[in-house]
Specification:
166 residues; alpha/beta; Rossmann fold; nine-stranded mixed sheet; two-stranded antiparallel ribbon
């Protein structure tokens, strides 16, 4: 369960994981208004990826939808509609103090939430990046994903620690 960091920098590996999640999660029919609608990966808060995320998704697509990145400096409540348009949203550690508000703003939206904030899946987040020594591990809250009408492939669930939120 997890991938050893070894020669791969932590955020380079996490960038690849963010792209890979798109292969193991199914969004509801009607998520994309047309074939030209991009697949959006958002980063909310202090971006730990730098250019690594761009490198990971360059020239890639998901089911024919080109991948676009969108960055949000911090959560202030006014960008809820923009956040809800993302298919994947990485919530940076800098947003820890606003996490409950962010998850509430996303309630009912089919947005795969990912973070490295401790306890994230227990608070209603979907995927946690965790470190176990020199290994990046995953924690998943399948109930939170189901509530967002997302279907997580059993292959992804198999390699993750499973959490249940209240």
């Amino acid at each position: 369960m997890g991938t050893t960091l070894g020669q791969v920098p932590e955020y380079e590996l996490k960038s690849v994981y963010l792209f890979d999640f798109a292969k193991f999660v199914e969004w509801p029919q009607g998520t994309f208004s047309n074939v030209d609608t991009p697949f959006l990966i958002g980063v909310l808060g202090d971006d730990p990826f730098g250019t690594l995320l761009e490198d990971a998704v360059r020239d890639k697509s998901v089911d024919g939808h080109v991948i676009r990145l969108k960055r949000f400096d911090h959560f202030d409540g006014t960008q809820s509609a923009s956040l809800r348009r993302c298919q994947i949203l990485f919530i940076a550690y800098s947003e820890k103090g606003r996490l409950k508000e962010i998850l509430l703003a996303l309630k009912g939206a089919s947005v795969l939430t990912v973070s490295e904030i401790e306890g994230f899946p227990l608070l209603g987040g979907m995927i946690l990046f965790d470190l176990d020594g020199d290994r990046v591990t995953l924690g998943i809250n399948p109930r939170a994903a189901r509530m967002a009408n997302l279907t997580v492939n059993s292959k992804l669930l198999h390699v993750a620690k499973i959490y249940q939120s209240e």
